[in-house]
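agent> step 3/5: call structure_predict on target 'CRISPR-associated endoribonuclease' (Lentimicrobium saccharophilum).
agent> reason: downstream docking stage needs a structural representation; sequence fetched in step 2, passing through unchanged.
tool.input:
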Amino acid sequence: MRIRLNIRTDEPHGNVIPVNYSYPLSAWIYRTIASGNHEFAGFLHDSGFKTGLKQYKLFCFSQLQFPEKGFKVEGDRLSILKGECRLEISFMAPLALETFIAGLFRGQRFRIGDKLSAAGLRVESVEILPNPGFSGSMKFKCISPILVSKERHDSRNAEYLSPEHNDFQKIFFDNLINKYTAALTHRLIGAMTANSEDDSAMLLKILNTPRSHLITIKAGTPHQTKIKGYTFDFEITAPQPLIYTGYTAGFGEKNALGLGCVKIDGN
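tool.output (status=ok):
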């Protein structure tokens, strides 16, 4: 399921937020879910949906989307100029929970900020968005960066891969298959047909020049870390259940921190 939150600034509580707002936005999403189902929110935050030793949250969200000339970035601050923005949140959740989850976000008031600046925001309305018609080949546009990484042999730090890296496609699809397996294990999706995971049936085609995004998580704290993702347009060829998984739960890694959310190219 996917919902769109139509958000306005809640005057007089400011309109300037940190550029690195994805972590506090993720924390607010968890708190909102916890207000209606504390156990489910705790499950998502602490363990998630497991397959083998891996675990996945199976939700993602977009960057804040503004109208034309609706924001301005100066240094590490983002000013909301027209008092409005939108946010899309996508969950791999049973159909029966769609109305319940959407209802949790209606009328919510929240604050995004740090010691330097903040904005009070309120959710004016919530839309449940229909799924697109899924096929075995689709074009998408990133509405939050996609992160794909691999371990460095000589370092404790991960290497964040550009979509043009030779290993990007394999790791991208391995992650997608693992997410699908976790969703299947928890009965959130149906089984694929035999041989549908054949590598020859899967292809990722980058359609424009990827743009890198360096993102700071837990900025200004002792636990601050920096990660890197990329936004780009792409065409994916794969079994429909895998494409559905990526669209709904997010492509790449760290989706619950606001990474890997896409929309149909052209929408």
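agent> step 4/5: record observation. The first strand starts at residue 2 and ends at 9.
agent> proceeding.
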